Every structure is written in structure tokens, then in C-alpha cells.
Amino acid sequence: MLFQNRKLAVRKMKAKDRYIMAQWLSDPAVLEFYEGRDQPFTPEKIDEKFLNRDDGVTRCMVDYGGTNIGYIQFYPLDEEERKIYGYEDEYIFGIDQFIGKTSYWNMGIGTLLVKSMVRYLIVEKNAYRVVMDPQVRNPRALRCYEKCGFQKVKLLPKRELHEGLYEDCWLIEYNTKGDEDGL
């Protein structure tokens, strides 16, 4: 287990998780903002996109109260991403996540997850900043991230191909400078 915070636990993804991930990533409600409703996943596609890769991304499952409810990944930004985002050589991590079990939406768990992951990255990985690039058209996610201390940095026009269209995204960041109180 990477960390636990109250009922929330995060652990590295395992091969056996492919089936629950395929279930979540076949749900149109989940796919509306993550991957796209035109891209449902099979267990084999989970293997290809999430399990059989060596790309510096740490892929994790999210458990809440003993139930697998979601997914989160983190990774140090590479030189190309830092250049696109306009960062120098700082130690910056990116994160992406979703709650796949929709009955757990709107309960504050996403906020707890993001705050916990940011704290983990700062304390355990010495992250200076943590960034995400959510779609502009996802106000629920943006509200969650803002509650966690993320701020909009810049608009990324046509950043993400989603359901056949390139969607605008926000570059948002959590900056540890001035964060003496922590999350």
C-alpha cells in the first residue's frame, strides 16, 4: 500500500484489477470525461494501456472502506511536458484519476483522494509542484481540484482528443511554495 488516509487507501495496480477497470471504463458516465464514450475498454485494452507498460507512470487502485472505487496515477513530468506547460527544471509530478464506481461520486472522496495524493507526492517524492490538465468542460472536477488548492495556470487549447474532437484543457497546479501549513 502506498498510503492510507481514514477510509481511503491507495495501492499499486495489479493484473487482477484489469476486470474492474474494464467494467469502470465501459460505463458511459465514467467515460464522459475519462477516455471517451466512444472508447470502451476490454480487459485486453486495460492490459495494453495500463498494465503492460514501462513508461515511468505509477498506476494505482483506490479503495474506500474496503471497496475498490477508482484509479489514480502519478508520474514525474518529462522534459517535453515541462516545455509544453512552460516549466523549467523543477521537480514536478502530474496526476490523473477517476472514481469508477459512480455510486461513490459527490461524497467528497475525490477531494480526499487528490489531497492525499498531493501530500504523498510532496512528502515521499519531494514534488515541488503537482499538475493536472482537466478538460475545460468538466466543472465538477475543476471545483474538486480548486478545493484541494490547485489553481488555473493557463488554457491549453485543443489539448486532448476526446470523442473525436480536440478539447480545451486547463493546466492547473498545486505549488508547494507558501504551503507551510500543508494540505
TrEMBL record:
Residues 8-172 form the N-acetyltransferase domain. Keywords: Acyltransferase, Antibiotic resistance, Transferase. InterPro entries: Acyl_CoA_acyltransferase, GNAT_dom. Its EC number is 2.3.1.-. The keyword Cytoplasm does not apply. It holds the Pfam family Acetyltransf_8. GO terms for molecular function: acyltransferase activity. It comes from the Bacteria. PANTHER family: LYSINE N-ACYLTRANSFERASE C17G9.06C-RELATED. This is GNAT family N-acetyltransferase.
